[in-house]
Structures are given as structure tokens and as C-alpha cells.
Amino acid sequence: MLIGELSRRTGVNAHQLRYYEAQGLLEAERGANGYREYDENAVLRVKQIRHLLGAGLSSEDIAYLLPCAVGEAPELLGCPELLAAMRSRLQRLDDQMDRLAQSRDALAHYIAAADRMAGESHPLFDCAGQERTPA
To answer: Which of 34, 36, 52, 106 has its CA 20 to 30 A from that of 5?
Structure first.
């Protein structure tokens, strides 16, 4: 099938399909006319890629995991290297979530402090930090 048909069948635009190919996630043969030609397995492969991207995996992670993928969802066949890679990615996500939670807490603190001070004006500075001129 040509890239347009693969795009229609998977709901993934042709630009993304070409990106998946460039990343080594998807394979296409070239016809005599130079057009990409995909086999029937490409539909399943694209669906697997989309699910794995939805799990927050990078294209590099996915390239490593795809040989172990079975089914559309997909299920991943466990092997020690695969499990180690997924655990490492999960730890990175947990670390990012911790940093985001800390940033959120700090921002909420600043908002609460600003709300408390909302009615008060500083005698020397306005809200933009500009010096007030005495009247």
C-alpha cells in the first residue's frame, strides 16, 4: 500500500509516517516509481508505535521495544534488557513529575502570597517594580 492509504487506515499523517521511517520504526520498500510501498503489517506497526508514544516513550525507546511488541495495544514480551529500559524510563518520568510538583507548589505559594497582599500597596514601588514618585 502507498503512504496515503497507510495514512487513511491508521489516522496518522504522511509526514509522521515518513518520520517513523527515518527513525527506523517503520519500513517501506520503494516501487519502480520511487514511491514508498508498505506491506499489510505496517498498519499494526503504526498502531503499536502510536500506543508506545502515548506511554511517553521516545522514538529511540520504541525502536528498542518494537521487536518485543505483540498485538495492537501492544503487549511486550519481557526480557531483562527490555524490563530494565522500561524501568529506567519510568524512573525518568517519576523524576520529572517530582520536579513539576515542586514547581507547582512554589508557584501556588507565590500566588497565595500575592493574593494576601492584593489590597495593599507598597509606598515606594508599584506592581511593576517601578519607583513611585512622591506626591
So the answer is: 52
Residue partners of 1: CB distance under 8 A and separation at least 6? 9, 37, 38, 39, 40, 42
The more confident residue out of 55 and 14 is 14
Whether residues 41 and 104 share a domain: the answer is no
Whether residue 8 is found in the same domain as residue 64: yes
Strands 75-76 and 69-70: antiparallel
Average pLDDT value for the chain? 88
The alpha carbon torsion through 128, 130, 131, 134 (nearest 10 deg) reads -70
pLDDT at 100: 97
> Model pTM greater than 0.70?
no
Among 12, 8, 4, residue whose Cα is nearest residue 47: 12
How far apart are alpha carbons 98 and 103 in whole angstroms? 9
| pLDDT score at 58 | 86
- Report strand pairing: 29-30 vs 36-37: antiparallel
